[in-house]
Design goal:
CATH architecture of the largest domain: Alpha-Beta Barrel
Helix content: 40-55%
Largest sheet: 8 strands, parallel, barrel
Number of strands: 13
Structural class: alpha/beta
Bound molecules: 2-carboxyarabinitol-1,5-diphosphate, magnesium ion
Distance between the termini: 72 Å
Strand order of the largest sheet: 5-6-7-8-9-11-12-13
Length: 413
Amino acid sequence: MKPMEYSYLHLGEGIDWDSYVVCDYRVTTDMPMEKAAEAIAAEQSTGTWTGLTTLSQSIFDKYGAKVFSIEGNLIRVGFPNEDFSIDVGGVPQILSVIAGNLFGLEAIGKVRLEDVFFSKPIKSMFKGPKFGIEGLRKRLGRPEKPLVGTIVKPKIGLSPKEMAHYVYEGGKGGLTNSKDDETLVNQAFCPLEDRTVAIAEAIDRLASEGHKMMHAVNISTGGHEILEVADRAQSWGANQIMVDVITCGFSAVQALAEDPSVKVPIHVHRTMHGAFTRDPLHGVAMLPLAKLTRMCGGDALHIGTLGAGKMSGDASGDRNNLEACIDPDQPFKRTMPVSSGGVYPGVVGKIVKAAGMDVQIQAGGGVAGHPGGVRKGAMGMSQAIDAAFAGIPVAEYAKNHEELRVALEKWGY
Ligand code: CAP
Ligand code: MG
Protein backbone atom coordinates (compact mmCIF):
# COMPACT_ATOMS: atom_id res chain seq x y z
CA MET A 1 0.00 0.00 0.00
CA LYS A 2 1.34 3.44 -0.95
CA PRO A 3 1.52 5.84 2.01
CA MET A 4 -0.81 8.80 1.62
CA GLU A 5 0.55 12.35 1.60
CA TYR A 6 -1.80 15.05 2.86
CA SER A 7 -1.66 18.83 2.59
CA TYR A 8 -2.03 20.69 5.86
CA LEU A 9 -2.39 24.01 4.03
CA HIS A 10 -5.80 25.62 4.41
CA LEU A 11 -4.60 29.08 3.48
CA GLY A 12 -7.25 31.78 3.17
CA GLU A 13 -9.94 29.74 4.95
CA GLY A 14 -11.88 31.39 7.76
CA ILE A 15 -11.02 30.08 11.22
CA ASP A 16 -13.65 28.62 13.52
CA TRP A 17 -12.06 29.92 16.72
CA ASP A 18 -14.19 27.68 18.93
CA SER A 19 -13.02 24.53 17.21
CA TYR A 20 -9.26 25.09 17.21
CA VAL A 21 -6.41 26.10 19.44
CA VAL A 22 -4.68 28.57 17.17
CA CYS A 23 -0.96 29.26 17.40
CA ASP A 24 1.24 31.89 15.80
CA TYR A 25 4.79 30.73 15.12
CA ARG A 26 7.67 32.84 13.88
CA VAL A 27 9.75 30.65 11.59
CA THR A 28 13.28 31.28 10.41
CA THR A 29 14.22 28.74 7.77
CA ASP A 30 15.91 28.07 4.45
CA MET A 31 12.90 25.98 3.42
CA PRO A 32 9.99 27.47 1.50
CA MET A 33 7.69 28.80 4.24
CA GLU A 34 4.77 26.64 3.11
CA LYS A 35 6.86 23.49 3.46
CA ALA A 36 8.05 24.53 6.94
CA ALA A 37 4.48 25.31 8.00
CA GLU A 38 3.29 21.94 6.76
CA ALA A 39 6.15 20.18 8.51
CA ILE A 40 5.19 21.82 11.83
CA ALA A 41 1.47 21.09 11.42
CA ALA A 42 2.23 17.49 10.48
CA GLU A 43 4.76 16.78 13.23
CA GLN A 44 2.47 18.24 15.89
CA SER A 45 -0.68 16.42 14.79
CA THR A 46 -1.20 13.48 12.45
CA GLY A 47 2.00 13.37 10.40
CA THR A 48 5.69 12.76 10.61
CA TRP A 49 8.70 13.06 8.26
CA THR A 50 7.21 10.67 5.69
CA GLY A 51 3.81 9.58 4.45
CA LEU A 52 2.09 6.93 6.57
CA THR A 53 0.17 3.86 5.51
CA THR A 54 -1.75 4.13 8.80
CA LEU A 55 -3.07 7.65 8.24
CA SER A 56 -6.56 7.65 6.76
CA GLN A 57 -8.47 10.53 5.23
CA SER A 58 -10.90 10.60 8.14
CA ILE A 59 -8.12 10.71 10.76
CA PHE A 60 -6.44 13.49 8.82
CA ASP A 61 -9.66 15.49 8.44
CA LYS A 62 -10.58 15.21 12.11
CA TYR A 63 -7.24 15.56 13.82
CA GLY A 64 -4.81 17.07 11.35
CA ALA A 65 -3.57 20.58 12.22
CA LYS A 66 -4.42 23.22 9.64
CA VAL A 67 -2.12 25.96 8.39
CA PHE A 68 -4.48 28.93 8.13
CA SER A 69 -2.12 31.68 7.11
CA ILE A 70 1.45 32.55 6.27
CA GLU A 71 2.46 36.18 6.48
CA GLY A 72 6.16 36.81 6.05
CA ASN A 73 7.81 34.59 8.63
CA LEU A 74 4.68 34.26 10.79
CA ILE A 75 2.57 31.17 10.35
CA ARG A 76 -0.81 30.52 11.96
CA VAL A 77 -1.65 26.91 12.72
CA GLY A 78 -4.91 25.61 14.17
CA PHE A 79 -5.05 22.40 16.21
CA PRO A 80 -8.53 20.85 16.40
CA ASN A 81 -9.98 20.72 19.93
CA GLU A 82 -10.04 16.93 19.56
CA ASP A 83 -6.22 16.88 19.59
CA PHE A 84 -6.22 17.85 23.26
CA SER A 85 -6.49 15.55 26.24
CA ILE A 86 -7.66 17.76 29.05
CA ASP A 87 -8.94 15.64 31.95
CA VAL A 88 -5.85 13.52 31.99
CA GLY A 89 -3.07 15.23 30.11
CA GLY A 90 -3.81 18.84 30.92
CA VAL A 91 -1.22 21.52 30.34
CA PRO A 92 1.68 19.07 29.81
CA GLN A 93 -0.22 17.54 26.89
CA ILE A 94 -1.29 20.96 25.53
CA LEU A 95 2.34 22.05 25.58
CA SER A 96 3.51 18.91 23.88
CA VAL A 97 1.15 19.79 21.01
CA ILE A 98 1.63 23.53 20.66
CA ALA A 99 5.21 23.76 21.89
CA GLY A 100 6.72 20.32 21.51
CA ASN A 101 8.95 18.61 18.97
CA LEU A 102 8.63 21.44 16.47
CA PHE A 103 11.45 23.40 18.13
CA GLY A 104 13.88 20.61 17.39
CA LEU A 105 13.11 19.87 13.75
CA GLU A 106 16.54 19.98 12.15
CA ALA A 107 15.33 20.86 8.67
CA ILE A 108 13.38 23.94 9.73
CA GLY A 109 15.79 26.08 11.74
CA LYS A 110 14.36 28.43 14.32
CA VAL A 111 10.78 28.58 15.53
CA ARG A 112 9.21 30.78 18.18
CA LEU A 113 5.72 30.35 19.58
CA GLU A 114 4.60 33.97 19.72
CA ASP A 115 0.97 33.62 20.75
CA VAL A 116 -1.78 31.14 21.36
CA PHE A 117 -5.56 31.53 21.26
CA PHE A 118 -7.41 28.90 23.25
CA SER A 119 -10.90 27.94 22.11
CA LYS A 120 -13.87 28.22 24.47
CA PRO A 121 -14.18 24.46 25.06
CA ILE A 122 -10.52 24.24 26.08
CA LYS A 123 -10.76 27.30 28.34
CA SER A 124 -13.85 25.88 29.99
CA MET A 125 -11.69 23.07 31.40
CA PHE A 126 -9.78 25.60 33.51
CA LYS A 127 -10.85 27.61 36.53
CA GLY A 128 -8.41 30.54 36.58
CA PRO A 129 -7.38 32.43 39.72
CA LYS A 130 -9.29 32.03 42.97
CA PHE A 131 -8.46 35.55 44.12
CA GLY A 132 -7.03 37.57 41.25
CA ILE A 133 -6.57 41.34 41.35
CA GLU A 134 -9.82 42.01 43.23
CA GLY A 135 -9.14 39.30 45.79
CA LEU A 136 -5.63 40.57 46.49
CA ARG A 137 -6.82 44.16 46.78
CA LYS A 138 -9.60 43.13 49.13
CA ARG A 139 -7.29 41.17 51.40
CA LEU A 140 -4.89 44.09 51.51
CA GLY A 141 -7.53 46.79 51.88
CA ARG A 142 -6.00 48.62 48.94
CA PRO A 143 -8.73 49.30 46.39
CA GLU A 144 -6.97 51.53 43.87
CA LYS A 145 -3.28 52.18 44.24
CA PRO A 146 -0.71 49.86 42.71
CA LEU A 147 0.52 47.25 45.18
CA VAL A 148 4.07 47.85 46.33
CA GLY A 149 6.37 45.10 47.43
CA THR A 150 9.83 43.84 48.09
CA ILE A 151 11.81 40.67 47.53
CA VAL A 152 13.75 40.00 50.71
CA LYS A 153 17.44 40.41 49.89
CA PRO A 154 19.98 38.97 50.01
CA LYS A 155 18.32 36.13 48.10
CA ILE A 156 19.71 33.62 50.54
CA GLY A 157 21.54 33.75 53.84
CA LEU A 158 19.20 35.59 56.22
CA SER A 159 17.78 33.69 59.19
CA PRO A 160 14.02 33.44 59.80
CA LYS A 161 14.29 36.11 62.48
CA GLU A 162 16.19 38.44 60.16
CA MET A 163 13.68 37.88 57.39
CA ALA A 164 10.76 38.57 59.68
CA HIS A 165 12.44 41.77 60.83
CA TYR A 166 12.95 42.76 57.16
CA VAL A 167 9.26 42.15 56.42
CA TYR A 168 8.18 44.12 59.48
CA GLU A 169 10.40 47.04 58.49
CA GLY A 170 9.05 46.88 54.94
CA GLY A 171 5.50 47.01 56.27
CA LYS A 172 6.32 49.96 58.50
CA GLY A 173 7.65 51.65 55.38
CA GLY A 174 4.27 51.17 53.69
CA LEU A 175 4.79 48.03 51.60
CA THR A 176 1.74 45.90 50.89
CA ASN A 177 3.69 42.86 49.75
CA SER A 178 6.90 40.99 50.30
CA LYS A 179 8.15 37.69 49.06
CA ASP A 180 10.87 35.09 49.31
CA ASP A 181 13.36 35.03 46.50
CA GLU A 182 13.15 32.19 44.01
CA THR A 183 16.19 30.28 45.27
CA LEU A 184 15.05 30.16 48.87
CA VAL A 185 12.82 27.30 49.96
CA ASN A 186 13.89 25.25 52.97
CA GLN A 187 17.63 25.59 53.38
CA ALA A 188 19.17 24.84 56.76
CA PHE A 189 19.94 28.49 57.43
CA CYS A 190 16.29 29.45 56.96
CA PRO A 191 13.87 26.53 57.38
CA LEU A 192 10.45 27.03 55.81
CA GLU A 193 8.59 26.41 59.05
CA ASP A 194 10.60 28.79 61.21
CA ARG A 195 10.57 31.46 58.49
CA THR A 196 6.83 31.20 57.87
CA VAL A 197 6.02 31.32 61.57
CA ALA A 198 8.32 34.29 62.18
CA ILE A 199 6.99 36.24 59.19
CA ALA A 200 3.38 35.49 60.11
CA GLU A 201 4.08 36.96 63.55
CA ALA A 202 5.57 40.06 61.95
CA ILE A 203 2.53 40.42 59.72
CA ASP A 204 0.18 39.96 62.67
CA ARG A 205 2.07 42.64 64.52
CA LEU A 206 1.74 44.97 61.54
CA ALA A 207 -1.99 44.21 61.39
CA SER A 208 -2.39 45.02 65.08
CA GLU A 209 -0.70 48.32 64.28
CA GLY A 210 -3.15 48.99 61.45
CA HIS A 211 -1.23 47.84 58.37
CA LYS A 212 -2.18 44.93 56.13
CA MET A 213 0.56 43.05 54.35
CA MET A 214 1.09 39.79 52.50
CA HIS A 215 4.24 37.71 52.25
CA ALA A 216 4.55 35.04 49.58
CA VAL A 217 6.51 32.15 51.02
CA ASN A 218 8.26 30.08 48.34
CA ILE A 219 6.93 26.53 48.40
CA SER A 220 8.40 25.52 45.03
CA THR A 221 9.13 21.81 45.30
CA GLY A 222 8.53 18.48 43.59
CA GLY A 223 5.03 17.74 42.32
CA HIS A 224 4.68 14.74 44.63
CA GLU A 225 4.65 16.96 47.69
CA ILE A 226 3.70 20.50 46.68
CA LEU A 227 0.12 20.33 47.98
CA GLU A 228 1.30 18.95 51.25
CA VAL A 229 3.94 21.67 51.59
CA ALA A 230 1.31 24.33 50.78
CA ASP A 231 -0.86 22.84 53.51
CA ARG A 232 1.94 22.95 56.01
CA ALA A 233 2.88 26.51 55.06
CA GLN A 234 -0.71 27.61 55.62
CA SER A 235 -0.85 25.84 58.96
CA TRP A 236 2.27 27.83 59.95
CA GLY A 237 0.52 31.07 59.06
CA ALA A 238 1.45 31.79 55.42
CA ASN A 239 -0.99 34.30 53.93
CA GLN A 240 0.38 33.88 50.39
CA ILE A 241 2.42 31.19 48.67
CA MET A 242 4.87 31.49 45.80
CA VAL A 243 5.53 28.97 43.05
CA ASP A 244 8.21 29.05 40.34
CA VAL A 245 6.01 28.12 37.39
CA ILE A 246 8.65 27.08 34.89
CA THR A 247 10.66 24.86 37.21
CA CYS A 248 7.61 23.41 39.02
CA GLY A 249 5.34 23.32 36.00
CA PHE A 250 2.01 24.88 35.13
CA SER A 251 0.29 21.88 36.64
CA ALA A 252 1.76 22.72 40.01
CA VAL A 253 0.07 26.11 39.87
CA GLN A 254 -3.16 24.51 38.71
CA ALA A 255 -3.06 21.81 41.38
CA LEU A 256 -2.63 24.45 44.07
CA ALA A 257 -5.21 26.84 42.66
CA GLU A 258 -7.86 24.18 42.27
CA ASP A 259 -7.30 22.43 45.57
CA PRO A 260 -9.88 23.53 48.14
CA SER A 261 -7.27 23.25 50.88
CA VAL A 262 -5.33 26.17 49.40
CA LYS A 263 -6.97 29.25 50.86
CA VAL A 264 -4.33 31.87 50.12
CA PRO A 265 -3.37 33.64 46.89
CA ILE A 266 -0.62 32.22 44.68
CA HIS A 267 2.24 34.44 43.57
CA VAL A 268 3.81 33.04 40.39
CA HIS A 269 7.50 33.61 39.70
CA ARG A 270 8.94 32.65 36.32
CA THR A 271 12.58 31.93 37.01
CA MET A 272 14.30 30.19 34.05
CA HIS A 273 11.83 31.57 31.50
CA GLY A 274 14.66 33.54 29.90
CA ALA A 275 16.13 30.27 28.63
CA PHE A 276 13.38 30.12 26.03
CA THR A 277 11.68 33.52 26.00
CA ARG A 278 14.73 35.65 25.33
CA ASP A 279 15.74 34.66 21.80
CA PRO A 280 13.46 36.70 19.50
CA LEU A 281 13.58 33.95 16.86
CA HIS A 282 13.45 30.73 18.84
CA GLY A 283 11.58 29.33 21.80
CA VAL A 284 8.37 30.45 23.47
CA ALA A 285 7.37 34.05 24.08
CA MET A 286 6.20 35.03 27.54
CA LEU A 287 2.72 35.83 26.22
CA PRO A 288 1.52 32.20 25.86
CA LEU A 289 3.05 31.45 29.25
CA ALA A 290 1.12 34.32 30.79
CA LYS A 291 -2.13 33.09 29.24
CA LEU A 292 -1.52 29.60 30.59
CA THR A 293 -0.61 30.86 34.05
CA ARG A 294 -3.89 32.76 34.29
CA MET A 295 -5.87 29.74 33.11
CA CYS A 296 -4.10 27.58 35.68
CA GLY A 297 -4.96 29.98 38.48
CA GLY A 298 -1.95 32.19 39.20
CA ASP A 299 -3.16 35.16 41.26
CA ALA A 300 -0.08 37.27 40.50
CA LEU A 301 2.52 36.81 37.79
CA HIS A 302 5.85 38.43 36.92
CA ILE A 303 5.42 40.12 33.57
CA GLY A 304 8.55 42.27 33.32
CA THR A 305 9.23 45.93 33.96
CA LEU A 306 8.00 47.35 30.66
CA GLY A 307 11.50 48.40 29.72
CA ALA A 308 12.48 49.88 33.08
CA GLY A 309 14.48 47.27 34.98
CA LYS A 310 17.46 44.91 34.95
CA MET A 311 15.97 41.92 33.16
CA SER A 312 15.73 41.60 29.40
CA GLY A 313 12.30 42.30 27.95
CA ASP A 314 10.84 45.24 26.12
CA ALA A 315 7.95 47.55 26.81
CA SER A 316 5.65 46.18 24.11
CA GLY A 317 6.32 42.50 24.89
CA ASP A 318 5.77 43.14 28.59
CA ARG A 319 2.62 45.07 27.75
CA ASN A 320 1.31 41.98 25.93
CA ASN A 321 2.04 39.88 29.01
CA LEU A 322 0.13 42.36 31.09
CA GLU A 323 -2.83 42.33 28.70
CA ALA A 324 -2.94 38.54 28.96
CA CYS A 325 -3.22 38.88 32.74
CA ILE A 326 -6.07 41.40 32.67
CA ASP A 327 -7.90 40.81 29.35
CA PRO A 328 -11.57 41.29 30.31
CA ASP A 329 -12.76 38.98 27.54
CA GLN A 330 -11.41 35.89 29.27
CA PRO A 331 -13.68 33.79 31.50
CA PHE A 332 -11.24 34.04 34.41
CA LYS A 333 -10.51 36.42 37.23
CA ARG A 334 -7.72 38.84 36.41
CA THR A 335 -4.17 37.95 37.42
CA MET A 336 -2.21 40.73 39.12
CA PRO A 337 0.71 41.69 36.83
CA VAL A 338 3.95 41.96 38.81
CA SER A 339 6.69 44.30 37.67
CA SER A 340 9.98 43.30 39.21
CA GLY A 341 13.69 43.03 38.54
CA GLY A 342 16.05 45.98 38.96
CA VAL A 343 13.22 48.30 40.05
CA TYR A 344 13.91 51.39 42.19
CA PRO A 345 11.78 54.42 43.10
CA GLY A 346 12.98 56.49 40.13
CA VAL A 347 11.39 54.09 37.60
CA VAL A 348 8.08 53.55 39.38
CA GLY A 349 6.38 56.43 37.51
CA LYS A 350 7.45 54.98 34.18
CA ILE A 351 6.03 51.55 35.09
CA VAL A 352 2.73 52.99 36.34
CA LYS A 353 2.44 55.09 33.18
CA ALA A 354 2.87 51.97 31.05
CA ALA A 355 0.93 49.52 33.21
CA GLY A 356 -1.81 51.56 34.85
CA MET A 357 -2.85 51.15 38.50
CA ASP A 358 -3.55 47.42 38.44
CA VAL A 359 0.02 46.34 38.93
CA GLN A 360 2.24 45.15 41.75
CA ILE A 361 5.58 46.90 41.65
CA GLN A 362 8.32 45.39 43.74
CA ALA A 363 11.95 46.03 44.48
CA GLY A 364 14.57 43.96 46.26
CA GLY A 365 17.77 45.93 45.80
CA GLY A 366 15.66 49.06 45.37
CA VAL A 367 14.52 48.68 49.00
CA ALA A 368 17.38 46.95 50.81
CA GLY A 369 19.98 49.04 48.97
CA HIS A 370 18.59 52.33 50.28
CA PRO A 371 21.25 54.11 52.37
CA GLY A 372 18.77 54.42 55.23
CA GLY A 373 17.99 50.71 55.40
CA VAL A 374 14.90 48.63 54.69
CA ARG A 375 12.26 50.81 56.35
CA LYS A 376 13.44 53.95 54.57
CA GLY A 377 13.91 52.02 51.34
CA ALA A 378 10.31 50.85 51.63
CA MET A 379 9.21 54.41 52.33
CA GLY A 380 11.05 55.57 49.21
CA MET A 381 9.21 52.98 47.08
CA SER A 382 5.86 53.73 48.71
CA GLN A 383 6.34 57.46 48.19
CA ALA A 384 7.19 56.86 44.52
CA ILE A 385 3.93 54.91 44.16
CA ASP A 386 2.01 57.70 45.88
CA ALA A 387 3.56 60.26 43.55
CA ALA A 388 2.65 58.20 40.48
CA PHE A 389 -0.87 57.64 41.82
CA ALA A 390 -1.32 61.37 42.33
CA GLY A 391 0.24 62.13 38.94
CA ILE A 392 2.99 64.22 40.51
CA PRO A 393 6.50 64.10 39.00
CA VAL A 394 8.74 62.09 41.29
CA ALA A 395 11.37 64.81 41.65
CA GLU A 396 8.67 67.26 42.67
CA TYR A 397 7.25 64.80 45.23
CA ALA A 398 10.73 64.15 46.60
CA LYS A 399 11.04 67.77 47.74
CA ASN A 400 8.78 66.91 50.66
CA HIS A 401 9.72 63.26 51.02
CA GLU A 402 13.19 62.69 52.32
CA GLU A 403 13.38 58.90 51.79
CA LEU A 404 12.38 59.29 48.17
CA ARG A 405 14.85 62.12 47.71
CA VAL A 406 17.70 59.93 49.00
CA ALA A 407 16.65 57.09 46.66
CA LEU A 408 16.55 59.37 43.65
CA GLU A 409 19.94 60.73 44.59
CA LYS A 410 21.40 57.21 44.76
CA TRP A 411 19.79 55.61 41.73
CA GLY A 412 18.49 58.49 39.63
CA TYR A 413 15.13 58.77 37.89
C1 CAP B 1 14.24 41.02 41.71
C2 CAP B 1 14.26 39.51 41.68
C3 CAP B 1 13.28 38.80 40.78
C4 CAP B 1 13.25 39.25 39.35
C5 CAP B 1 12.93 38.21 38.33
C6 CAP B 1 15.66 39.06 41.33
O1 CAP B 1 15.21 41.56 42.58
O2 CAP B 1 14.03 39.03 42.97
O3 CAP B 1 13.56 37.43 40.86
O4 CAP B 1 12.25 40.23 39.35
O5 CAP B 1 12.71 38.74 37.08
O6 CAP B 1 16.18 38.20 42.02
O7 CAP B 1 16.18 39.57 40.36
P1 CAP B 1 15.73 43.06 42.46
P2 CAP B 1 11.27 38.81 36.41
O8 CAP B 1 14.54 43.95 42.74
O9 CAP B 1 16.79 43.20 43.51
O10 CAP B 1 16.25 43.26 41.08
O11 CAP B 1 10.38 39.57 37.35
O12 CAP B 1 11.52 39.57 35.16
O13 CAP B 1 10.80 37.42 36.18
MG1 MG C 1 14.35 36.98 42.59
